[in-house]
Amino acid sequence: MTEGPLHTPVCSLLGCDLPVLLAGMGGVARTELVAAVAQAGGYGILGMVRESPELIAQEIGAVRAQTDRPFAVNLIPSATDPALLDAELGICLELGVSAMCFFWDVVPSAVARAKAAGCLVLHQVGSLRAALAAEAAGADVLIAQGVEAGGHVHGTASAFVLVEQVVRAVKLPVIASGGFATGASLVAALALGAQGIHCGTAFLATTESFAHDEHKARVLAAMAEDTVHTDIYALNWPPNTPVRVIRNSVIEGLGPNLMGHRPDLLPREVIAADDGRPLFRYSTDSPLRTTSGNLEAMAIYAGQSAAMIDTLPTAKGRIDAIMAEAQVSLARLAMMSKGEGA
Predict the structure, then answer these.
(1) Residue among 215, 200, 217 at smallest CA distance from 146
(2) Are residues 234 and 157 in the same domain?
(3) pLDDT per residue as tens digits for the range 210-221
């Protein structure tokens, strides 16, 4: 890609052409999607949350077999058993992964270990305090996640407020996350001082995504107000770890009580299975291609940007559309600055 307003410094740092990052969604951001995003010029992040070292090695090898473009592996240190985290990080570093992406609470020892092995470290944060902690720990890139985001949401501020706040306070490149799925939102993120966007919902609804077709269909049909912020899907995670999901029978059954649910007090009722593994109601698991059972009652993750998602293209098609829309938005701004209107 030629240099221009949409090729930001973070692209050179990460080794991608375009400032569009794939969120490392657990279960969803697997080989096919990561490789497709990377090949299309974006930056892929492999979602390996609490996966076995064997699967992580298999997925890393499979991505490398499909693309020679760089990518990162996403882990969540504070929500992973220390022994498993040690093994996860170990296999990533043993295989020479060029970048790690961490999320949730900042664990300085994990950042230090990745940096000592020569990895770039991206850290997703949900508050200014967390952003400053990640910078102090040695992160290279910050992903500022607003409350509009789908899946696990670490903060309470809107992306437009949080991103600008973080940009003003840190010296690192900042990527905007939460509600960014179009070219117009990419331009808006750049205007806030971010150097790119981090997209989950937009890439969940692509052909290469490992999400179940029913999950994709729910995203295509959803409006922003169909998503809710709740901590009912809490099994497998520590307490006080809310998510954003699309309304379903479980959410409707809560009435106004969307918050205040403790994982240790929730019943263990099997409602589905994935590749032979039982899945519980209230689990953080979302329906994947390999999942069967009561999919409707599972966590149907989506951000408020689902309102802007009504097609199911390839990952390349999604990126191409974002970049084309961004050029239109830039042209519209240029016309406005000349007094020519929209």
Answers:
(1) 200
(2) no
(3) 999 999 999 999
